[in-house]
Amino acid sequence: MRKAILIGCLGSLVFLSACGKKEEPAPQAAAPEPKQEAQPDQAAAAPAANVNVQKEMAKADTAIKQHDYEVAADSLLKAQFSQQPMTVKQKDDHYNKMRALQVEIANAMMRGDPKAKKAAELLKQSRPQ
Prior knowledge:
With 129 residues, the protein is mainly α.
């Protein structure tokens, strides 16, 4: 009986110590890593200074409705990486359109649409590494 209690206590101690908060090492002052932007579409890779965010958002909306996923992804990425500041409403609109596009792309990929796969790769490559 004592042996079972001892094993139970020991097991609980091991379990609790494993679930405890891990101590992270102090961050060291290291040189910042250069950002790597690997995008096949050079228009989306470089920040577009002269991009009209509102026009790109409208273009993306039309492309989503027409199931032209690559154009929609390209337009949303141009708007996102534009140097023109977005209003709060534009940011919300961009977020909602990007989510809608991702859902559409996922559904189209499930149906086997090759254009959806290309658009998904474009979005995947636009993420920071």
